Amino acid sequence: MLKKLLDHRLIFLTSGIKRSVIIPSDFDLCTQMKLLNDKKKFKEALELFDKYKENNNKTLSSYTITQALKASARIRDLQRGSTIHQFISSDMKDNSYILVSLIHLYMQCSEVTRAQSLFDTASEKSLHTYGAMMKGYIKNHMTNKAIDLFKEIKNPDEVIIIILCNAGAQLGTNEALSLIKKVSSQMPKHFYSNLRLLTSLLDVLMQCGDVKHAQALFDTSTTKILSMYGAMMKGYIKNNMATKAIDLFKEIKDPDEIVINLLFTACAELGTSEALNLTKIVSSQMPKHFYSNLRLLTSLLDALIQCGNVTHAEALFNRSIKKISPLYGVMMKGYNTNNMANKSIDLFNEIENPDDVNFIMLFNACAQLGTHEALNLIKKVLSQIPKHFYSNFHLLTSQLDALIKCGDFSTAEILLSKMKKSVISYGNLMSGYLKTDNPEKVLDLFDRMKNDNIEPDFIIYLCLIKALSHIGDYSLSQLTVQQIPNSFLLNDRIQNTLIDMWVSSN
DNA sequence: ATAGGGTTAG
């Protein structure tokens, strides 16, 4: 695009002063906005845009509007983006650059319907338009829609295939894997020399569990860029092969922040003393400014804690000038796993804007204590949780767990009735009733589960048999056990628990 | 204009 602009400028420079007063000012605006956007200074780019609009009544070029839309999309400023949309002249609305930018804007702001209607009414649909729609669907977790759209495309280019790989990686299913394999075998061979495409391909193969295929592809590539190592390491971690991820890391000459981050994740996964040594060596050898990357620091602390060195993690945490919620979260997790729930709670009280994970960690700490004070804290915190966190299933589950562990079954029951029903939450409440010697409640919950059409799992049946064992009613036991599928009756632990039950009811 | 690999969670 810059080349096009430069061409414009050359024309205007040679065509007299009069034009150079009007046009180059918009040109300058556009170049400056692009520079700011490239530096991720989106707000500044938009301020410049506003200032220019105030002082000039002239129509803006499509290049400038594209930059303004891009900045609005990146900061997810729907209000501003819509205003610009209204401001666009009708003949410019057919411009394909503007169309793509508008779709991108609405998709980034989760306004899928508005993006869809722009797409549907567009007179011409370019590959870029399809690409923006597909990317938007992925962003809004409507992955299958992205794949459906892909199937409409006759000659996908490299970018479209990259986006398709992203969709496949998000799904991680066998269906996604076979689609990717089919598409990659049919695409022009020279696409394989596009290393960004190759990275996405490695990523999707790994996320769908085809480690061997990814390895073969990685090994045959003569040129290997860092992102390819990153995709492989991420894939090994995902497929529980952390050691392989570490081995691959050792082959990298100049690791960047991303692959080091992946290394720390792998080390955290292993949690061995070798992993601890490696974490210490790499963190001491990496450039000092990496420590101010808070995402990287979070992984580093996690690795140290999981490998058992809480003291070192604490020291680094205290040394960090800037502290973000995830950094508190990882420390709280560390205290929780080391049975230091009180320290975890103290840390929570220092957080200015707790995120969802912070709340989860607090609930875990309260569950660990199981005291009356802990219950009071849970109730105090409940009123502080922002409403949008209530869609986070993890948060509700750990909240339920904390209430049960602190013995507040009535509040737990209310929460369960409001939650999306699941085996996990039922199992949690059942084992709570079992521990507090309420076997009748366990049977009651089992019936409610059946009414909710939830498929019981191993844990549920185990709780059920133990509850029957507590009650000790032979005919009730016989009647209930008939409902357990044979596949579960073959399990050793189920069989042992059953034996205990028959003994106690005779 | 749409394009790659990264943190904490039941």
UniProtKB/TrEMBL annotation:
Pfam families the record matches: PPR, PPR_2
Q: Where are the PPR repeats?
A: 126-160, 422-456
What InterPro entries does this protein's entry cite?
A: PPR, PPR_rpt, TPR-like_helical_dom_sf
Q: What is this protein called?
A: Pentatricopeptide repeat-containing protein
Q: Which PANTHER family match?
A: EXPRESSED PROTEIN, REPEAT-CONTAINING PROTEIN, PUTATIVE-RELATED
Instruction: Point out the coiled-coil segments of this chain.
Output: none
Ranked from the top, the taxonomy reads: Eukaryota, Metazoa, Spiralia, Gnathifera, Rotifera
